[in-house]
Design goal:
five-stranded parallel β-sheet, eight-stranded mixed barrel, phosphoprotein, binds ligand LFPHGCPZ, EAL domain-containing protein, 26 helices
Amino acid sequence: MQAPDRAKKPLNALIIEDVEDDALLLVDYLETNDFSVKWCRVDTEEGMISKLKEPWDIVFSDFSMPHFSGHRALGVLREHNSEIPFIFVSGTIGEDIAVEALKSGAQDYLMKDNLVRMRSAVERELRETQSRKDRQKTDRSRARLVAILEASPDMVAILQPDARLEYLNSSGLKLLGLEGVEKEHVEKLNLVDLVSEPFAQQLWVEILPGLQQNKAWHGETEILTIAGKIIPVSMSLLAHNDRHGEIEYLSVTVRDISERKHFESVLHHQATHDALTGLPNRYFLINRFATALELARRHDHCVAVMFLDLDNFKRVNDSMGHGHGDSLLKQVSQRLRNSLRPGDTIARHGGDEFTILLENLKHPDKAISVIRKLREAFLQPIKVGSQDIYVTFSTGIALYPTDGQNVEDLLRNADTAMYRAKALGPSQYRFYAPSMNARGHEFLSLEGDLQQALEQNEFRLYYQPQVDAQSGKVVGMEGLIRWQHPKRGIVSPADFIPLLEGSGLIISVGEWVLRQACMQHRIWREAGFNDLRISVNVSATQFNDRHLMDKIQRAIKEEQMIPHLLELEITENTVMQDPVAVIETLNALRSEGVRIAIDDFGTGYSSLAYLKRFPLSVLKIDKSFVDDIGEVGGDSTIVEASISLAHKLGLQVVAEGVERVEQYEFLRSIGCDLIQGYYINRPLTEADMTDFLVKNATQ
Ligand SMILES: Nc1nc2c(ncn2[C@@H]2O[C@H](COP(=O)(O)O[C@H]3[C@@H](O)[C@H](n4cnc5c(=O)[nH]c(N)nc54)O[C@@H]3COP(=O)(O)O)[C@@H](O)[C@H]2O)c(=O)[nH]1
């Protein structure tokens, strides 16, 4: 082999020729025609095969040789998969054979004695080989690109400028549920048909026209599978221009982000909901509340926020353990949720506190109907472990726009109102009033003084007479506490009982009231007023005191009280707190001979039918019902019905707060047993009560 001349066109030629001179003539011809030939001559099949490993640009072959043939040489070359151009150069070839040779894959044939066409034939073959190689390279890289697109986990599509599908990769077919669908059907689809409303609109009206200018759109949206399933996706839409700057085609890459969205929503739920109850948390509520206020401001609506605090939750937690406490909270949450409308928001504020947001209220009173509904929902006990627990809650309500203009103020005011409700005993509700804040400060200073009031002997017991409705004779009295404050004078129990409740002092002050009443009763008995009954109020906190029975028994014994003349007034709500335990205590009191009165009847959420299971003696109809008597639009049928039913259940009925003669007369006419109220007398000091008894006895 000879080295090629670098100034000329290099040509590596394998020459299959038995005659060395013919080969040299050929090379000489090529060299004189501007080729620098690197060549090798073989004349056997083995020789050719051994040389095929080298990088030949062209093969020249004689047609017939003693040990080899041009035909066979062409066969060998093609068997080795070689696409190297093959040119016959022969002295003997006839036209038929030449045609045959071309048919069998040779690129050309030339006569040894006429090589005029050789230069152009070689140049042509080299050119075609090069362009074939280029084409193959392009095909290969195209195939690779398609393979990459097909292997992509994202949907990739090529679209016509009007968004019709031209190509859709396998992931796209899979994502859209188009696997197995005929290609021609797929190609009829438009991207607009494959996205959900309202993105289809946006795509059509805004995004596609905008691509002329913007060239690209990226965003998160939803696509619609052929089966109608909506899948959240991230999408990149690109416009590809032709050389005139017109959109030639579009490409779109779509990534299924369902999993990410799912995790995002899980995270969002965790950040906005309470893990124990699954209810929205404080953060969620504040956001929702802010939106509700915006809307209310715009549409002139009223919004109520209610703060609920479970009564005695701590007792359940402490006595039954946190596991049971959690179970109670979960069940309470469920009941609260079920009692509200879908548009109302209930959130767990923390601990045993819940917040309810009532939007778009027509009237603030609607909040009361909601409280009633909630109370009804809790009439049935909640089973925790093996115990039935009756749940009550204290509620504070603040209203937009009257009680505040922003979330913070309204929540704070609802909280203040809730604390005031809680101080009144279980199951109470209070609407916020600005005076609550002012009184809050006053309360603080009173609270400090209360600590010493008992030691300093500052409490007084006043007595309000109860008379027989028919005869007008005094048959008993209610003991009502007052606080003789050294600086403020007489302080109303409405102002300090909640403080005593809150501090727990009510237990010892309640005991003082009981003993004071029993002691005074003995003094009046000794003065000849023998059969008078005396009643005292027992708050829910006192009722929960496990030493209550013991204290009552000791007071009766030590103050020489006649048990059947002692009456304890408890409210419906005290009864409802824990009915099973209450029945037990009431039975014990009854066996001592002590009478029990239900105070403020009608203000709670029990019914007489419900109360009949308790060993009660007296029903005190609340002043609010008595107030209705004789008023225009007032409804006295409740009073009538209550008295009639109470009598059927063997209860004596006392009407409280009787202020006017027509109330008295009406109550007498419908069979009310006893009357108490300013119409008879206000609560009196013991001295004034003694005078009143004397006067009454002599009338
Ligand atoms: N746990 C205890 N609670 C007590 C005790 N003493 C009183 N209280 C409770 O405080 C609340 C306010 O009591 P008071 O200011 O004494 O008001 C009572 C009566 O004075 C009042 N009343 C009676 N008749 C009329 C009337 O004709 N008009 C009118 N406007 N008010 C009237 O009503 C209150 C009656 O109380 P009750 O029968 O108990 O419902 C009050 O809730 C008391 O219960 C105590 O020692 N312990």
